[in-house]
Amino acid sequence: MAHILVVDDDNGFREGLVETLVDLGHSVDEARSGEQALEMLESTGAPFTCMFLDFRLPGIDGLAVLDALRKTAQGQALPVVMLTGFASSDNTIGAMTLGAFDHLTKPVGRQAIQALLARIIASTGTSEAAANTSHPFSAESAGARPRLLGVSETLREVQKQIGRAASSEATVLLTGETGTGKEVAARVLHDASRRSGKPFVAVNCAAIPAELLESELFGHVKGAFTGATEDRPGCFATADGGTLLLDEIGDMPLPMQAKLLRVIQERQITPLGSNRVIPVDIRLVAATHRNLQTMVEAGEFREDLLYRLNIIPIALPPLRERLADILPLAEHFLAEVAKARSRELRLSLPAQHLLVGYAWPGNVRELRNAVERAGALAPGAMITAEDLGFLNGKPDLGEPLVGTGLLEMTLPDAVETLERALICHALTLASNNRADAARRLGISRQTLYAKLAALKIE
Asked: Which residues contact 73 (CB under 8 A, 6 or more apart)?
């Protein structure tokens, strides 16, 4: 039996969660505010097994409570499950950076709670909740700083992985198709880490000629080669104390891979033309759209370097697997265009249908470019399907992702119809095994349970 603290100011949700936990055989205490929760944690004689903590609370919010917990000896090892009515990039990454065990969106199903508690109890003493938390995370808006925008379950998993990775110093390997946002993910990781006040340096290994790459990375001294008229620090030295992103690492020549491996192992560089060894303190992030394992098998990439880079692998999903994110992203990009043009811009319903039905081979980058083009050239405030007509003429459009019947529906009806069809299909393939169906759909079980209830699927 677990001893659980539930912190939520929503009486209805809190009482329902407490009832479920008690029914599952656990002992539960309740708190209606963050201040009350911290007092209970300090005064209780019996330690809690875990805590369910809401983001939005009167007084100090959930992230502030979690931050305060991680600064106490008792709170460092306490598994905390964050709860929110609406998951965003900031609150997901913020929670995971501070060592939350998980981050759930309300409502939460009974079976999902039971499975989560089994994970918590099994991992007590070695759980992610004891992650390094030597730095605070602010949930307040930071203006134009990079964010991983989206509401899909697949992107939320990426946000959680970034939040967890941000509390460590391990090397991260970002993979994904071109345009999925790997550099944005690297910047978000840097901003959430303890190195956020130090430089973030990105270098595209594919854009630099092979003969200049060593100088670009490690620097050179005056006279090292023709044209070297002065000393120049490389990207490693410039990023000292911060984060270095090696983008398109799969395009790095094999001889340079050997030199990079040595630098990663020894954490020191030697500028070209010099014998002086310079120590560097960086967080290394690598990114590629290539399959590095396949390249290793073909002899095009060093296996030992892949081992060094692939400490924390994070895969960025293509936009075609994030249908729920297309319109929120389009609205965000359109708002940027509208602000730059000092005018109001909106997406018409046919334009929304067109955006959701397009295959987006160029992923988020292509979506941004399409919205910027339409917003810049649209004669009126409403972006119409005609303004986005250039998408229909692209040779790589392929078959539409959704049937023409869906394109004639309103957006809420189309989303509901598509979700119902996908869920029923997954349940059929899984022989009504809900855990298996959730895996096939790429969502968590609690999300599947919530959708089953909302769509009234038996």
From this structure: none
For the chain, the helix, strand and coil percentages under 3-state DSSP, each to the nearest 5 = 50, 15, 40
Q: How far apart are CA 8 and CA 31, in angstroms?
A: 7
Buried b (16+ CB within 10 A) or exposed e, 341-367: eeeebebeeebbbbbbbbbbbbbbbbb
Q: Tokens 């968590």 map to which residue?
A: 444
| Class of domain 3-130 as given by CATH | alpha beta
Sheet with 172-175, side-by-side order of all strands:
200-204, 243-247, 283-288, 172-175, 312-315
Q: Where are the beta strands (DSSP E) in 121-177?
A: 172-175
- Residue 419: in which H helix or E strand, if any? helix 411-429
Tell me: domain 319-401, CATH 1.10.8.60, correct? yes
Q: Is 63 exposed, middle or buried, given 0-12, 13-18 or 19+ CB atoms closer than 10 A?
A: buried
Query: What are the sequence ranges of the domains in the chain?
Result: 3-130, 169-315, 319-401, 411-455
Tens of pLDDT along the chain (458 residues)? 789 999 999 998 999 999 999 988 899 999 999 999 998 888 876 688 899 999 999 999 999 999 898 887 777 778 999 998 877 777 788 888 888 888 888 888 888 888 888 888 876 543 333 333 232 222 223 345 678 888 788 888 999 999 999 999 999 999 999 999 999 999 999 999 999 999 999 999 999 888 889 888 998 888 777 777 788 888 999 999 999 999 999 999 999 999 999 999 999 999 888 888 999 999 999 999 999 999 999 999 999 999 999 999 999 999 988 888 898 899 999 999 998 888 888 888 888 889 988 989 999 999 999 999 999 888 788 898 889 989 876 544 344 445 545 556 677 777 777 788 788 877 777 777 888 888 777 787 778 888 888 887 86
CATH topology of domain 411-455: Arc Repressor Mutant, subunit A (1.10.10)
d(C-alpha 95, C-alpha 67), whole Å: 9
What's this model's pTM, rounded to 2 decimal places? 0.66
